[in-house]
């Protein structure tokens, strides 16, 4: 079973025929909302809006553990996580689709493991390749099938938010090797790995990162909204192809 996690700009899937919704309780508290069960092109999927269906949960307040646990508890094996990002690399211009292959985590204070507590032996999970390569390939093939160009690979820097970054912070992320910046990729990716889920990001560039391109003087949220509106329509088409591959 495939799950789709929708980020900013994707709180609903218009092409999802909804069958039912289910509120799941987890040992880690409440997920961002009820899971939405339905079909896209006759394939069963589960949808969850990461920031809540009314987009009210900030990146640092998302209960990532509950979200991933809830999906896992319903038999989900594969997860495509749609996430908007700021483009740091010059190729990552607003509206572009990107499938990153690496992560740098700059977040702090988020509950980022299921493996804690006195009863749990200490383990050090391998995270060399943070994304599931099968799901990455599926996202890229789906983009091709939908006739959408995309950037294959890139380094996703996950910042704490909810504020955007300063220019100097983006300069630092670039020196670190990051090509895009978002606020929700972690700890989602590591929790998926702990649960044995095949997880990848389908990134959508919402804006030039701070101090880059048209964001040289600042990031205008009205521009971000209009970019995301257009791009998420294309993401929905990619997802239609993805479910039937
Ligand atoms: N910074 C961090 N997260 C983001 C951005 C950004 O510029 N754009 C979309 N998500």
TrEMBL record:
Pathway: Purine metabolism; purine nucleoside salvage. InterPro entries: MTAP, Nucleoside_phosphorylase_d, Nucleoside_phosphorylase_sf. Phosphate binds at residues 8, 50-51, 184. Substrate binds at residues 183, 207-209. Its EC number is 2.4.2.1. Residues 2-243 form the Nucleoside phosphorylase domain. It holds the Pfam family PNP_UDP_1. It catalyses: a purine D-ribonucleoside + phosphate = a purine nucleobase + alpha-D-ribose 1-phosphate. The record marks 165, 221 as: Important for substrate specificity. Keywords: Glycosyltransferase, Purine salvage, Transferase. GO terms for molecular function: glycosyltransferase activity. It comes from the Bacteria. Although this enzyme belongs to the family of MTA phosphorylases based on sequence homology, it has been shown that conserved amino acid substitutions in the substrate binding pocket convert the substrate specificity of this enzyme from 6-aminopurines to 6-oxopurines. Purine nucleoside phosphorylase which is highly specific for 6-oxopurine nucleosides. Cleaves guanosine or inosine to respective bases and sugar-1-phosphate molecules. Involved in purine salvage. Belongs to the PNP/MTAP phosphorylase family. MTAP subfamily. Homohexamer. Dimer of a homotrimer. NCBIfam families: MTAP (TIGR01694), PRK09136.1 (NF006599). This is Probable 6-oxopurine nucleoside phosphorylase. It comes from Thiobacter aerophilum.
């Amino acid at each position: 079973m495939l799950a789709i996690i929708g980020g900013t700009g994707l709180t609903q899937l218009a092409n999802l025929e909804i069958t039912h919704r289910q509120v799941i309780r987890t040992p880690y508290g409440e997920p961002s909302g009820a899971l939405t069960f339905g079909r896209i092109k006759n394939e069963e999927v589960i949808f969850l809006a990461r920031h809540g269906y009314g987009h009210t949960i900030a990146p640092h307040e998302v209960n990532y553990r509950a979200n991933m646990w809830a999906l896992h508890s319903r038999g989900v094996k594969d997860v495509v996580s749609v996430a908007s990002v700021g483009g740091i690399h010059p190729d990552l211009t607003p509206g572009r689709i990107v499938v990153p292959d690496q992560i740098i985590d700059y977040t702090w204070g988020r509950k980022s493991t299921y493996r804690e507590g006195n009863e749990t032996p200490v383990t050090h999970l391998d995270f060399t390749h943070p994304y599931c390569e099968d799901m990455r390939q599926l996202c890229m093939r789906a983009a091709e099938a939908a006739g959408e160009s995309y950037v294959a690979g890139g380094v996703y820097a996950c910042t704490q938010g909810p504020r955007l970054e300063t220019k100097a912070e983006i300069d630092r992320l670039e020196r670190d090797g990051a090509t895009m910046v978002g606020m929700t990729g972690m700890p989602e990716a590591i929790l998926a790995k702990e649960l044995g889920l095949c997880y990848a990001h389908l990134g959508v560039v919402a804006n030039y990162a701070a101090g880059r391109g048209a964001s040289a003087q600042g990031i205008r949220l009205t521009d971000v909204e209009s970019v995301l509106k257009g791009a998420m329509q294309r993401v929905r088409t990619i997802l239609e192809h993805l479910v039937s591959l």
